[in-house]
Backbone:
């Protein structure tokens, strides 16, 4: 799953978030195929500096080949006054041929609009892990989330996945649901991540940088 691009062919935080959301949906439904962790693809896509003569689409295919995938899923995002429209395409990596294409429409929200206005490196100030040697932020204070009475009564267990922007001070400045749980556990996960503190991500020179990362918040009944 590659990060989705906007109409100008650039990757925004919106494109990263929506690609992660679709990627986790595929993980839950995979039968007869294995979904590659997006970190591996991003490592090859963002690790080297993109040549000025190379399009992002070509870089996606080269990264997919380097990561050893057979199929890469790409997406192009357009917005109108009410919705975000994503054209999702599955491509055969070895031949470049289109396998399948589908259109997905989701309502516009203030959170999605905010993400759409924020570009990732090299066009913006926010990095992805592995991009130009950027490290993963390490959680140094990670209290466990609280159960809701309803979730405990229903004996609900599982994992909430959120996308978080971790700033240079080690705090989560924005948290969005990627894959949630019912009975109020998604809200509890977002609340506890706001309290988490991290050793900030660092670039190859040891400077603290802002990154967007997926985070898991697990719920287990004792």
Residues:
């Amino acid at each position: 799953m590659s990060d989705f691009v906007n109409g100008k062919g650039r990757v925004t935080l919106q494109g990263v978030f929506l690609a992660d959301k679709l990627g986790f949906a595929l993980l839950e439904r995979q039968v007869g195929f294995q979904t590659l962790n997006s970190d591996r693809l991003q490592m090859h896509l963002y690790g080297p500096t993109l040549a000025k003569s190379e399009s992002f689409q070509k870089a996606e295919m080269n990264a997919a080949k380097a990561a050893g995938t057979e199929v890469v899923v790409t997406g192009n995002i357009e917005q109108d006054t009410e919705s975000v429209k994503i054209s999702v395409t599955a491509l055969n990596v070895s031949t470049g041929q289109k396998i399948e294409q589908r259109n997905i429409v989701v309502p516009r929200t203030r959170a999605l609009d905010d993400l759409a206005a924020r570009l990732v490196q090299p066009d913006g100030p926010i990095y992805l892990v592995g991009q130009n040697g950027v490290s993963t932020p390490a959680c140094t204070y990670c209290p466990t989330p609280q159960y809701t009475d309803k979730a405990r009564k229903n004996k609900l267990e599982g994992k909430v996945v959120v996308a978080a922007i971790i700033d240079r001070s080690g705090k989560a400045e924005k948290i969005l649901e990627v894959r949630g749980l019912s009975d109020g556990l998604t809200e509890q996960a977002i609340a506890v991540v706001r309290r988490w503190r991290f050793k900030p991500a660092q670039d190859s020179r040891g400077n603290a940088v802002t990154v967007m990362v997926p985070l898991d918040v697990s719920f287990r009944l004792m």
The longest helix spans residues 13-29. The chain has two domains: 13-119, 134-219. The CA atoms of residues 21 and 178 lie 5 Å apart.
